[in-house]
Amino acid sequence: MRSSTAPAVDAPSRAAVSAADCGLLLIRLTFGLLMAGHGAQKLFGVFGGDGLTAAGKGFAALGYRPGKVYAAIGGGSEFLGGIGLALGLFTPLAAAALIGVMINAMATVTGAHGLWDTQGGVEYSVCITVTALAIAAIGPGNLAVDRLFPWGKGGWAETALALFLGGIGAAIVLIL
Predict the structure, then answer these.
(1) How far is the C-alpha of 5 from the C-alpha of 3, rounded, in Å?
(2) How many CB atoms lie within 10 A of CB 78?
(3) Which of 129, 136, 92 is nearest to 110 (CA)?
(4) Is the preceding omega at residue 92 within 30 degrees of 0, hence cis?
(5) What's the N-to-C CA distance of the chain in angstroms?
(6) What was the pLDDT predicted at 146?
(7) Which of 91, 117, 147, 167 is the 20 to 30 Å CA partner of 137?
(8) Degrees (nearest 5) of the Cα angle 74, 78, 83?
(9) What radius of gyration do the chain's Cα atoms show?
(10) Tens digits of residue pLDDT in 141-154
């Protein structure tokens, strides 16, 4: 029995949307949709892209054989990884897809050109890799599909999974 002097306790209410949740949504949407668009350029020839056949020729020129298959893998990783991050869906896997593509880009294209993008260096790829890894670490926030799942909170395990899978995927592609 409650004392008449005890304060009334309301039933738990839904948590308000925080500034951090909105900030993560802004980062995820901007970053994710731009990466998805970058992949769509390769896959579908939209947004000024040349499409899969031309991307395949570019990949073949870099030593990826068959070029069109590797262009589809790279473009698909960028497209699906970007959509996943934008939605906050399977966030560690979406981050891994982007990390793997960027490790490949650094190993085969930009690594020999130093740091800065103005000289064709790794700057852009490093920014993408670190952003994807940070989203896996922090978690996608409460304005994400993943909020319903155990991995939707971020943490060390999600960070390690994204880095491990991205690294393994990149290593497999580089070895082949």
Answers:
(1) 5
(2) 25
(3) 129
(4) no
(5) 71
(6) 96
(7) 117
(8) 150
(9) 20
(10) 999 999 999 888 99
